[in-house]
Amino acid sequence: MHGEGVGLVFLKSLADAERDGDRILAVIRASAENHGGHAASLTAPNPKAQAELLRTAYARSGIDPRTVGYIEAHGTGTPLGDPIEVEALTGAFADLARDAEATFGPAPAQSCAIGSVKSNIGHLELAAGIAGLIKVLLQMRHGEIARTLHCDELNPYLKLAGSPFHVAQQETAWSHLIDGDGNILPRRAG
């Protein structure tokens, strides 16, 4: 399902927003972009290129990736695209967790929900990315992870077993994590 839409967010440096007394909904710690690499077709993305993009973004962020509680996935709902996206996430986060162990020390096992706004509003052509960002902001604000619609029966090719990921098949509270020193961490998403 395709649709049309538009979304707007106001981006400002954290220092300027704090100085101006703005209401800060979230902080973007890092971003990254790359080319999708060689792929068989548009519906069969390259998992190695996707995984490398994730590794780059989280390395730039300076956070422990094991503290991420939600991933807003591209989530095309295609039999091939979604399993490739999960493969990229699983591979990248396995590497990131190994590196984080050396940098940040031990951590409890990660549990990270995956969802996609496309299950609610379809693919908004030019506004797909901003729609996902706005969904993440709303979930952070309300402390809830929204249910991903139309996925009562998961794609049998999704390889989630043994990974920190699960599809958000029901609405759940999004609790804050506590670090090793007892500090409450902000909700973190990718």
The biggest sheet, with number of strands, parallel, antiparallel or mixed sense and barrel status, is:
3 strands, parallel
What is the helical fraction, as a range of percent?
Answer: 25-40%
Name the structural class.
Answer: mainly alpha
**Secondary-structure element order, N to C:** HHEHEHHEEE
Measured by DSSP, the beta-strand proportion falls in 5-15%
With strands numbered from the N-terminus, the spatial order across the biggest sheet is 1-2-4
Unreliable stretches (pLDDT < 50, length at least 5) are none
Count of individual beta strands: 5
| Individual helix count | 5
Estimate the mean pLDDT confidence.
Answer: 90
Distance between the termini: 24 Å
Coarse morphology: globular
Radius of gyration: 17 Å
Give a verbal description of the structure.
The protein is mainly α and 190 residues long. The protein is 34% helix and 7% strand. It has five helices and five strands; from the N terminus they run ααβαβααβββ. The strands form two sheets. The protein has a three-stranded parallel sheet, covered by helices on one side. It has a two-stranded antiparallel ribbon with strand order 3-5. α2 (47-61) packs parallel to α3. The two termini are 24 Å apart.
